């Protein structure tokens, strides 16, 4: 996988994500060399991500989550599952958000964090022009969704569809896929993933 170019200015969201990735890598007892081998990313790029100097794409984050043996929800800022009792609800004001500002994608985690859960629900917001990149990616699990507003271009393997408001989808995450906003306004997708 190629890495996006690093910008000179560090963004707070990149620093927060990078610090969380570093904590998770260290908690797993992995070196940058180990993660590079598992993700096919360069050690330098991984180091830049951890220091908040580069913005990871959704494809890169999904690959890192697989390398750490966790779901994407575990990479969200403040993504620490409760230790005493699993939560049942998430208040709107308390949602975790993963902002991939360079790609124009924001993911809001709608389900409570839980170490034992294999199911997560997200509200994915795509700014005009937002996309996951031209190169499809894969990861563990299955995903499904419903376009709530706007339009989304979804590519899975060699097929592609433009999904409009009310259209839905489901596919195995191990199939190469990517997506983009197909509207000139914000697109919102209710997205479910399972591991």
TrEMBL record:
SUPFAM superfamilies per UniProt: lambda repressor-like DNA-binding domains, RmlC-like cupins
Positions of the HTH cro/C1-type domain: 21-75
Recorded GO CC terms: cytosol
Keywords for this protein: DNA-binding
GO molecular function, one term: DNA-binding transcription factor activity
UniProt key word DNA-binding: yes
PANTHER family (alphabetical): HTH-TYPE TRANSCRIPTIONAL REGULATOR, TRANSCRIPTIONAL REGULATOR
Protein name (database record): Transcriptional regulator
Lineage: Bacteria, Pseudomonadati, Pseudomonadota, Alphaproteobacteria, Hyphomicrobiales
